[in-house]
Design brief:
Layout (H helix, E strand, L loop, with lengths): L1 H23 L3 H10 L1 H11 L2 H30 L5 H26 L1 H18 L1 H18 L9 H14 L4 H12 L10 E2 L6 E2 L4 H11 L3 E5 L6 E6 H4 L20 E3 L4 H11 L3 E5 L5 E6 H9 L14 E3 L4 E5 L4 H7 L13 H9 L8 E3 L3 E9 L2 E9 L1
Helix pairs in contact: 1-4, 1-5, 1-6, 2-3, 3-6, 4-5, 4-7, 8-9
Amino acid sequence: MEIVALSCLLILSGFFSGTETAFTSLSLTSIHTLIKRNKKRGHKIEKLINKPQILLTTILIGNNIVNIGATTLTTTLVIKYFGNVYLGISSGILILFILIFGEVTPKQIAMGKNESICYHSVNFIIFFSILFKPLIFIISLISNLITKIFVKNSPMELTEESLLNLVEAGSKMGVVEHYESQMVKDVFRINDTPIHGIMTHRKDVFRLDASLTVKEALPSILLEGFSRIPVYENSDENITGILLFKDIVKLEEDEICKPLKDFSYKPIFVPGSNKVNELFIRFKVEKLNIAIVLDEYGGLDGIVTREDILEEIFGEMYDENETFEEASIVKLNNKTWKVAGDTSFYDIEDIIGLDIPHDLGTQTINGYLTEKMGNFPKSGTTIETEEGHWSIEKVDNNCISSLIFVKK
């Protein structure tokens, strides 16, 4: 009878140990799965998970009671049948049995079967939590008083960094695809990226004089193939309207002799220092697709479109009229890359693995290296930095078009 009782105590020890591991290793996904499986029982599990102090205290009290009971019973049996001489040996054997059958094995099983164990044990744990309620209250009270002395009360928060770390870990484990992981990173990045970091610079903006007639401007419009075109008056930096190609193609023959300004819409102006996510929300609310970016002096800095923002998340997108461009970073060997001058620091960090310290006003490697040199770049110039060796391959209009980077 005593052996049966001892075996039961060892089984209970394994039950409490395994249950502890099962509940603490349960993920949010697993909880939702259990709720779908059985709504009532699933919510019980969720409630216990959200009260870790009650859950863990209940399990630990139960585990300690059965372990102490097993030790007491073993001691009694050994003294009764073999005398005090074998107490040391029996204690060693009992510890071994508790470790194997009451701790290690149940915990290993629980890690692989945590959902099933939680599902079948939740009612037992709730029963024990009610049974041990007075004891749990006293222990929790004393524990909280001691904890407050040594630990400041700081609630657990899911930060942006911890979420990104989870996504990266999921990518390495194969749970999340690489492109999905990159998209999540880019979604968070647009909260910190200024508009001038993704805009089309004014030197590359196709714009038309508002005084031109539609007939005069049509050949250029068809050649460039843009659906939205800024128009200016007096100076090519004084943007006064946005011309929509869809409106032009609907004009009657007698209307094509009218100036472009008659068919243009009032543009919206945004500071280049504003964040990309703010502009995206404005585009969405006001149903807009293009904005004129102004510099700190109120002059034309460039233009930004809804497509520019989407490309920051999904990567480059091309329509039928666009020519496919080479990737901004091309790996040549383990230590060498060909890098486009307008490559952002985010791309360099993601692809090459370089975290380059830079001024917030500098968004591309062209700006960074030009600042380092202190003058306009020239083809063939080499620059040594802490990150490695930069060799300027091509320069267009005093801007670095492409370069070769050799990592240290």
